[in-house]
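pinned: reference chain
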Amino acid sequence: MKIRWRVVGISFLSLLCVTFIFLCWMSPRLGGLLEFGKDHIDLTIQKLQFTTQKQANIKLYYGDLSKSPTSVKLRSAFPLDSIAAQCQTDFEKVKAVQSWVQSRWKHDGQNVPEYQDAYYILKEAEKGRRFRCVEYATVAQQCLQALGFSTRQLGLMTRDISEVKWNGGHVTNEVYIEDLKKWIFIDPQYDVITLRNGVPMNAVELQHCIANRIDFEILNPNKLITKTDYEKWIGPYLYYFTISLQRGQVSIWDRIVGNKRQLTLYPVGAEQPAYFQKMMRLNTALYTHSLDTFYPQF
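pinned: its structure tokens
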């Protein structure tokens, strides 16, 4: 009997050890219980190189969601149609909607909503709640989708995202403008759109300008930040670029088994990041160096 209990005890301890090792592998900081890692992100801006050859195994698709029940509900509850009606071009509509979204609440980097749903977030904002950059991007994306735009959230990460313990990421959007036949970068938290020679840029084009000290302009209708301050702030985040593969939200199970639900564009010569701020393992993305894969034309 003593031997049997000893075997049970050893088995139980072994299971605990394996579980602890697995948890540390998934989240070295154990979900934030431990605090270690770099306190500050690397502010160095590097010149990045990418390829253009498309990857045949990766195809991005963006359907028209304007008639979905979620979009109809959003347009009925908020003045999206009236905002769009005052604009002449698709670009003007995007600019106006972004400014409206940014004005709904003030930024709070710690407050996480119960649901990543634009209608819910906007209603909570009317009650005085504040939210993160993630929620600005979520609301902007769903509002623009409700108006028929192909829109995606764009997660940005610094070069040292696996080493820092906070402030290593930022969430924005990119929108496909039919008039221009290109994707453009928007940052709803700051109400910023960037342009070069009057043409809106995507995130990679913005990084190229910053790294190579090429002059560009910003549109900031709500006057939240100067061009100099925004360039200095956003530059370090323009290293890893991540979008959804439209396969649903990333769940805990996806992270455990490594289901691929995202696509990350990363520079030639860069490493694929292992962790997000040592909080969670980054194993749910496909990786590409290809601009043509990341920026499909319609």
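why pinned: The two ends are 71 Å apart (CA to CA). The chain is about 35% helix and 15% strand.
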